[in-house]
Input
Amino acid sequence: MTFTSLEQLPLAEHEFRIRRLKELLIRTIPQASGILVFARLNIYYLTGSWVNGLVWIPRDGEPVLLCRKGIDRARLDSPMTNMGEYRSFGQLQDILQDFEAPMGSTVAVDMTGLPWSLGRSLQKHLGTTTLVPGDHVLAKTRAIKSPWELTKMRRAGEIHNHCLCHILPHHLRPGMNEREISLKIWEVFMEHGHCGMMRMEHFGEEIFLGHVAAGDSGNYPSVFNGPVGLRGVHPVIPHMGDAGTVWHKHQPLTLDCGFCLDGYHSDKTQIYWDRNAIIPDQARKAQDFCLEIQTWIAERLRPGAIPSQLFTTCWQKARNLGHMEGFMGLGGNKVRFIGHGIGLAIDEYPVIAQGFDEPLEEGMTMALEPKIGIPGLGMVGVENTFEITPDGGKCLTGRIFDPIMI
Output
């Protein structure tokens, strides 16, 4: 049988990513002889193939992709030539030696890509080899998007905006329940190219479609690492919306739903009101403040800007203007960030939060999401995806930032 890849990673793109990773590895972990990568999303980023296995990137020499399963798929999707198979970590040293890419005495490891049990097994089989964390190097490598990646993200953002702002409003009406709204969003997204799933990287985080929150669902207790609450389908599936919760005329409808095209994400939150709704002054003022915060940060999304400084200034603005109670979540839903990197995963590096003191770089992409929870009413605010440029943040998800009146 003869098969053709749906999209092989361009060789130049693969080489650009490997080169950037090596440069960061040498700069930040100079003692490491290379980096072992286990997380499938990182393997895909570096090789172009979604396989069960690992990739070894030596500081000197060509990378090696080793598969437990999926080598035939890897040969279709990846431009790499150094590929092999393995069954046990005990085989790694010999196999890599055969590829003339041996591991040295110190190896950086994608530690978040391995559960504890496999990490202990790896250490056991590598004997005296010292393993050091390499996760930050991988995160920084992926943070700057190539022109090839930006083309995909710009297209994702364009379609995302078109769906939420130009198509979906014709299908929404007060009286629909959250599940009905979720199904309609899913239908619209899938008709316009959504891949059908989205990915998050941080331990324990999951996502499906996004948050559909009518009225006070926007403040419903949530375990998700974001400000918007939601009832979800069931306690074991706290995603999408609840069939028993109806969107009423005088409530905000908050849709925080991501879009995924060719594996790359855009993130956008859109608020909807019935056109005849009586919108409380508190909600209007909170919405206006969130728009001001988004504009203020977007203008400063330039190379050299410090994320922690942007966060501190905005947090203080919210405190000074009396919005702190619900800013970035109400009660236990409050989160201490205002934006996050995005790309192959929704939750990428960097984050606009305390502790992120390394300057932004051109080509990074970030979702800004200032929001405010209002007791008894719901969640208002905004979220859009931006590309960092010398002229400030370039919005990839359209120019409709105000609530849409249905």
